[in-house]
């Protein structure tokens, strides 16, 4: 089994209306339950918005610079992640397909290095 | 390359790579091993003669080479594991439906997770045995660019673990579409002068038709390519200028390819699941039926274009349909259709317009349209034809 990261790509700005969000959260619960049942579940979670991000940067001489804000400004940012186990890319893409249908957002699928 | 070896290379390279990829689970290793085996063949066959089963010899030699190499390089634990795996029980048997190995490799190369250009390039490289330089030339990109694309695609197959298998039935219709598109792209790539690419596309088309005889579009694509290929001997002047279908010497068409293509068209149309390739093949079958250009059944061709527009509408299809309209209803209604299309960047759009304007006696506009067409093509044969037509209109 290989590990894959499913990243949810969320547009910047206001979140969807509560009733829309409620449907999405329900679909996500169903998706996560399916992952667990299939033994593909590792971890999943949503992230607070990019305005809550802090960037740390190693400086010469061992100092660390702390700054406010996301690392890059963009129109879409990482909204949440789902870490799964799958035998190959096709299986991972099948989970990705379910994830994009559940969230209505684009999903980026990336393999982890190594077997695990 | 010595004669016997070269023939075997053309016929068996793809199959050998496909078998070795399954055996080794690594595309780069498989390619190296097969190339090693052909190098050995070049050295030994001239003396020992071509073995009774050249393909089997290449595959066995490549496999032994790969095992040797893995042993030699097994300094790291991973290599040990890999070498051990070759002997592990449950290793897929070497025998078995070898053809499926090639199909697996085609489907791996044409995985939707790879960029379309990389799909075509990988298919040409792994199944066609084309060098990176040849593929780079076909795509008109510098060789290092193509090398990088191939490396990236192979790395993604390995690192993301794109599976090496024929997709499940449920995925097949979607994937087959991609595979067919890739094969047709290869064919069209060769149409501009690379005969070997057309031959490779035809070989892949035949292979797919043999492996998926129940997919009408697979048969349709093969028929389409055969019918177009049949006209090759009549398509250019000795100087390399394009000769349009209407002006071709039909006696020079290859009757054998036409007969084969037409039989395939009949076979897939009987299934009554029309698709774009089948309809295009049927259109070409109608052209090949006509003993002279004047005898062409344009009504039937127009009906087929109507069907194609309903199934897979595109401005290019609309343009081709307009040509059939010109033959059945005259140049003016055709020009009205063409003028409504948004295809300014496409040389054929201007070429069709030019021809219609010429037939309507609007010479000055026709010249301008020919010039627009000439400016938009970099194919020498095409340009030669268009320049000749324009010259006919400008006596000065």
UniProtKB/TrEMBL annotation, chain A:
Entries under InterPro entries matching the protein: Dimeric_a/b-barrel (IPR011008), YCII (IPR005545)
Taxonomy, superkingdom: Bacteria
Matches recorded under SUPFAM superfamilies: Dimeric alpha+beta barrel
Annotated YCII-related domain residues: 1-103
UniProt family annotation: Belongs to the YciI family.
Protein name in the entry: YCII-related domain-containing protein
Species whose genome carries this gene: Streptomyces avermitilis
UniProtKB/TrEMBL annotation, chain B:
Keyword Lyase tagged: no
DUF6596 domain boundaries: 175-268
Biological processes, Gene Ontology terms: DNA-templated transcription initiation
Domain RNA polymerase sigma-70 region stretches: 9-74
Alphabetically ordered keywords of this record: Sigma factor, Transcription, Transcription regulation
Molecular function terms from GO: DNA binding; sigma factor activity
Protein name as annotated: RNA polymerase subunit sigma-24
Species name: Streptomyces avermitilis
């Amino acid at each position: 089994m290989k590990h894959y990261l499913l990243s949810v790509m969320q547009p910047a700005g206001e979140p969807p209306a509560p009733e829309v969000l409620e449907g999405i959260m329900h679909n996500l619960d169903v998706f996560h339950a399916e992952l667990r049942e299939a033994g593909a579940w590792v971890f999943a979670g949503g992230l607070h918005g990019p305005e809550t991000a802090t960037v740390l940067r190693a400086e010469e001489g061992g100092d660390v610079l702390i700054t406010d804000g996301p690392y890059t400004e963009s129109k879409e940012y990482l909204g949440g992640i789902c870490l799964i186990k799958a035998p190959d890319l096709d299986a991972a893409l099948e989970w990705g397909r379910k994830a994009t249908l559940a969230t209505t957002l684009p999903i980026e699928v990336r393999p982890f290095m190594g077997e695990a | 390359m010595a004669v016997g070896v070269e023939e075997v290379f053309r016929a068996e390279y793809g199959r050998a790579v496909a078998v070795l990829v399954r055996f080794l689970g690594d595309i780069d290793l498989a390619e190296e091993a097969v190339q090693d085996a052909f190098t050995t063949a070049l050295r030994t066959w001239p003396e020992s003669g071509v073995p009774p089963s050249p393909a089997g010899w290449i595959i066995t030699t490549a496999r032994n080479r790969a095992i040797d190499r893995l042993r030699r390089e097994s300094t790291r634990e991973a290599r040990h594991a890999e070498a051990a795996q070759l002997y592990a029980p449950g290793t897929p048997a070497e025998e078995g439906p070898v053809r499926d190995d090639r199909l697996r490799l085609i489907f791996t190369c044409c995985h939707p997770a790879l960029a379309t250009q990389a799909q075509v390039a990988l298919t040409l490289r792994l199944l066609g045995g084309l060098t990176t330089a040849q593929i780079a030339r076909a795509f008109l990109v510098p060789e290092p660019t193509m090398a990088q694309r191939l490396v990236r695609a192979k790395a993604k197959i390995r690192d993301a673990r794109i599976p090496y298998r024929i997709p499940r039935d449920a995925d097949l219709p979607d994937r087959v579409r991609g595979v067919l598109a890739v094969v047709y792209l290869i064919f069209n790539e060769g149409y501009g002068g690379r005969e070997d690419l057309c031959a490779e596309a035809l070989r892949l088309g035949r292979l797919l038709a043999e492996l998926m005889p129940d997919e009408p579009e697979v048969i349709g694509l093969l028929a389409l390519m055969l019918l177009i290929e049949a006209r090759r001997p009549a398509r250019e002047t000795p100087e390399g200028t394009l000769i349009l279908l209407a002006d071709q010497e039909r006696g020079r068409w290859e009757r054998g390819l036409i007969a084969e293509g037409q039989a395939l068209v009949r076979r897939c149309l009987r299934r009554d699941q029309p698709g774009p390739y089948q309809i295009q093949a049927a259109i070409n079958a109608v052209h090949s039926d006509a003993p002279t250009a004047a005898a062409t059944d344009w009504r039937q061709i127009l009906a087929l274009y109507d069907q194609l527009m309903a199934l897979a509408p595109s401005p290019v299809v609309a343009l081709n349909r307009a040509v059939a309209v010109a033959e059945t209803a005259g140049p003016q209604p055709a020009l009205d259709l063409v003028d409504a299309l948004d295809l300014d960047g496409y040389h054929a759009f201007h070429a069709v317009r030019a021809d219609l304007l010429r037939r309507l006696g609007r010479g000055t506009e026709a010249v301008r349209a020919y010039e627009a067409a000439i400016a938009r093509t970099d194919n020498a044969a095409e340009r030669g034809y268009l320049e000749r037509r324009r010259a006919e209109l400008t006596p000065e």
